[in-house]
Design a protein that fits this description.
318 residues; 2 helices; 9-stranded antiparallel β-sheet; 20 strands; binds 6-O-phosphono-beta-D-glucopyranose; mainly beta; 7-stranded antiparallel β-sheet; 40% strand
Length: 318
């Protein structure tokens, strides 16, 4: 083999290569991670709620209400609240029946367990495909006494939030640390930020039956076309297998892939319902959000004593 004369030399791996940065806010309420590409995520320890996710070009991908409570007094209106151990209003007679709507995970202060990161050296100065994973934990010992007595079980949740270029993944491991089984539901209540709801359509849920939470219909007629929004929309799609694409002006804006989460809730409160929520602002904010919530909520999942369940979502900003 003839050796090229002007063969480029190997790119040196500089010890100064930019790496993902993670910091904790001075008041110890938030964890912020930034990639060398400018991608950034901000997580409130209260609820382990992702309250901001920005792409490298500075574009915010999540809707956060201007009146959202970020002081730990109420679940956050926006971002990605974590719903556990029940979805929706409590059902009397069920073991979660004394909890409040969507459970306690979104309104408990989680523990920050630490970070792990991976760096690629493929694009010097840009940080290549680096990613950073933030882990948070919640267990019966750190939820408040009201939630503890309303749902008297031993459990451990490990929530991992991974930021990579143009992508955010959230995954939850749920462990039953007692000997008998209990039932639960889980969901990532993701508020996606969009420019104009009247230009938005969602594909990937066509031909699926759904529960219409606005009309109360248990088996609403499957629709052949993509979902569009002209009024309050609150639907629970079950057994959804395909990835979900959120388009704006017919151009893909987000792609959501799911792992072990068979259900998808699609929610927009529209004008009247938004007005009725004290923590929802501005009043026309419903035009710039759509919730696409990956979860397992169609039925109860049973977790045997000593077992762990895992599920997650991966959102790509396009
Ligand atoms: C959605 C539900 O997941 O959450 C809606 O499908 C509900 O019915 C919405 O209104 C917001 O719930 P909350 O408890 O945050 O006001």
């Amino acid at each position: 083999m003839v050796e090229r004369k002007d063969k480029p030399s190997n790119i040196p791996i500089s010890p100064l290569m930019p790496t993902p940065q993670v910091s904790i806010s001075d008041d110890n309420t938030r964890v912020i991670a930034t990639l060398p590409t400018g991608d950034r995520v901000e997580v409130l320890l209260y609820g382990a709620t992702v309250i901001s996710w920005r792409s490298g070009n500075g574009k915010e991908n999540l809707f956060l209400s201007e009146e959202a409570h970020l002081d730990g007094s109420k679940a956050v209106r926006g971002g990605i609240p974590v719903v556990f151990p029940l979805f929706g209003a409590p059902q009397s007679g069920h073991e979660t029946g004394k909890l409040s709507q969507h459970g306690f995970a979104r309104s408990s202060r989680w523990e920050y367990l630490g970070k792990s990161s991976s760096e690629s050296t493929s694009i010097p100065g840009m940080g290549g495909d680096s990613s950073v994973k933030l882990d948070f934990g919640l267990s019966e010992g750190i939820i408040d006494s009201k939630a503890q007595s309303a749902w008297n079980h031993k459990f451990g949740l490990t929530y991992s939030i991974t930021l990579s270029t143009g992508e955010l993944s959230t995954s939850l491991a749920v462990s039953n640390t007692e000997t008998s089984s209990w039932e639960f539901q889980v969901l990532f209540h993701t508020y996606l930020k969009i420019d104009d709801i009247s230009k938005v359509s969602i594909t990937g849920l066509e031909e699926l039956q759904y529960v219409d939470r606005v009309s109360g219909e248990k088996q609403a007629t499957a629709q052949q076309t993509s979902i569009t929004f002209r009024k309050e929309t609150d639907r629970v799609y079950t057994k959804a297998e395909k990835p979900i694409t959120v388009l704006e002006n017919d151009k893909p804006r987000f792609k959501v892939k799911r792992d072990a989460l068979s259900d998808v809730v699609v929610w927009n409160p529209w004008e009247e319902k938004a007005k009725g929520m004290a923590d929802f602002a501005p009043a026309d904010g419903y035009k710039s959000m759509v919730c696409v919530e990956a979860g397992s909520v169609g039925q109860w999942m049973t977790l045997e004593g000593g077992d762990t369940w895992e599920g997650g979502q991966r959102i790509k900003a396009l």
